[in-house]
């Protein structure tokens, strides 16, 4: 297993955000994390990327305890986090933003930049433009592109479709599927449950810090509780 969380508890001071979360991501799969606001989705991603330490439970990356890996070394071990709200560098050009994500051996930078620009032709057209002048969708592409520059094996994506126009949302999901086809595992947090489940192999539903449902994407898409709560059906 690439990533394993077992009975993970995370708290912000007196506020318990995760109450015994267990989940797994295998090499090369897309796993989506669904849940209402405040369910603990972002907290789960922040725990995996080492920004938060569990109060209890275990986390493993490639069978090695995550807690033994300093947060700044996780990128080198293949974990790349695209946080909610994108956080690109607005005054730096698209190219400079992408290069900020390059982590590995400098010799690969040219190849990696070429791959990212092939994936996002829109970024190629805007390569010299300041990041802050891009549209919301283009900034999301830039944030994902920057994360790809580190050659991740596991990408953590926090609400990549948030606040974007429907056509761009479609593009973002297609690109996530394409990145996955190239062998990158994805842990995807989304409010857009239907689109997320369509590209995912499996999913988990979080409610108030607990996994209340887990299964294949197909079984979750067919589940009445998921349909009512997350797919807007009666
Ligand atoms: P959303 O969809 O709204 O982003 P989420 O599922 O990602 O929600 P989290 O952001 O993980 O939820 O939050 C889980 C719980 O932890 C919430 O009750 C939230 O209020 C609380 N929480 C999150 N960050 C902090 C913080 N820095 N300090 C205190 N409590 C926090």
TrEMBL record:
<dbReference type="GO" id="GO:0015807">
    <property type="term" value="P:L-amino acid transport"/>
</dbReference>
<protein>
    <submittedName>
        <fullName>Amino acid/amide ABC transporter ATP-binding protein 2, HAAT family</fullName>
    </submittedName>
</protein>
<dbReference type="InterPro" id="IPR003593">
    <property type="entry name" value="AAA+_ATPase"/>
</dbReference>
<dbReference type="Pfam" id="PF00005">
    <property type="entry name" value="ABC_tran"/>
</dbReference>
<keyword id="KW-0813">Transport</keyword>
<keyword id="KW-0067">ATP-binding</keyword>
<dbReference type="GO" id="GO:0016887">
    <property type="term" value="F:ATP hydrolysis activity"/>
</dbReference>
<dbReference type="InterPro" id="IPR052156">
    <property type="entry name" value="BCAA_Transport_ATP-bd_LivF"/>
</dbReference>
<dbReference type="GO" id="GO:0005524">
    <property type="term" value="F:ATP binding"/>
</dbReference>
<comment type="similarity">
    <text>Belongs to the ABC transporter superfamily.</text>
</comment>
<keyword id="KW-0029">Amino-acid transport</keyword>
<dbReference type="InterPro" id="IPR017871">
    <property type="entry name" value="ABC_transporter-like_CS"/>
</dbReference>
<dbReference type="InterPro" id="IPR027417">
    <property type="entry name" value="P-loop_NTPase"/>
</dbReference>
<dbReference type="InterPro" id="IPR030660">
    <property type="entry name" value="ABC_branched_ATPase_LivF/BraG"/>
</dbReference>
<dbReference type="InterPro" id="IPR003439">
    <property type="entry name" value="ABC_transporter-like_ATP-bd"/>
</dbReference>
<dbReference type="GO" id="GO:0015658">
    <property type="term" value="F:branched-chain amino acid transmembrane transporter activity"/>
</dbReference>
<keyword id="KW-0547">Nucleotide-binding</keyword>
